Hints:
Strand content: 15-25%
Radius of gyration: 12 Å
Helix content: 10-25%
Mean pLDDT: 82
Strand order of the largest sheet: 3-2-1-4
Shape: globular
Amino acid sequence: MTGWDAGADAPDDSEGMRSGPVRVTVHPPAPSGGRRVRVNGEFLGLAHNATDIAEFLRRAGLEIDPSDVPGAPWIDWRGAGPEGWDPDATA
């Protein structure tokens, strides 16, 4: 998924600070490893696997099981899909 189209399955902002669904973006693998994770444009951290993403989202108030991260339709995977963690995955 390269464009944002979360649809009805996207979680709502639990704190009501923004209107509409939360936008999660996982950027392409960095040359040094890991992928930047943003929620609504705010940088949450550098993830090295789905468990890291789930933890970042939990800290942001969004509960998701790590096993559900790869199939979540409201996560925008850039440059590589949920299986791409190696910097060479985008080549």
